[in-house]
């Protein structure tokens, strides 16, 4: 795990607690505006941290930079995606993502067609769902 000083030097800021179980940090690169209809940023998840169930109005693309990403779509199994892998999440798919229990995970998140809505937050992910039970 990175120290608080290392996280600050890397440019990450604390993520909103209400959308995560555990500790997470965000670093934003591109916000939607009149010319760029997309969002690009990174999220760092402490070991065992995951975000709430949510959907997107358009595709979200996750590029896994470090660690192992746990990813689940509603009704499906928990998938483990290694660093260097990616997920293309289709519009309206209820899902969550987070870090494996034993390592930090960092992903780059790309939200396209932001005018369709970036994220619709829902309920926290249960320990049972996180553990694939």
UniProtKB/TrEMBL annotation:
Matching InterPro entries: Cupin_2, HNL-like_cupin, RmlC-like_jellyroll, RmlC_Cupin_sf
Database matches in SUPFAM superfamilies: RmlC-like cupins
Domain of life, source organism: Bacteria
Pfam families xrefs: Cupin_2
Gene3D superfamilies for the chain: Jelly Rolls
Cupin type-2 domain mapped to chain residues: 42-99
Protein name: Cupin
Phylogenetic classification of the source organism: Bacteria, Pseudomonadati, Bacteroidota, Flavobacteriia, Flavobacteriales
């Amino acid at each position: 795990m990175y120290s608080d000083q290392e996280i600050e030097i890397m440019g990450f800021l604390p993520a909103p607690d209400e959308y995560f179980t555990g500790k997470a940090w965000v670093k934003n690169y591109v916000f939607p505006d009149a010319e760029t209809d997309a969002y690009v940023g990174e999220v760092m998840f402490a070991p065992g941290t995951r975000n709430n169930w949510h959907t997107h109005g358009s595709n979200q693309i996750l590029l896994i930079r470090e660690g192992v990403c746990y990813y689940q779509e509603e009704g499906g199994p928990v998938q483990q995606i290694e660093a260097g892998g990616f997920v293309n999440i289709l519009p309206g798919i209820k899902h969550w993502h987070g870090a494996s229990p034993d390592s930090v995970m960092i992903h780059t998140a790309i939200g396209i067609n932001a005018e369709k809505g970036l994220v619709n937050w829902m309920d926290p992910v249960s320990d049972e769902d996180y553990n694939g039970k």
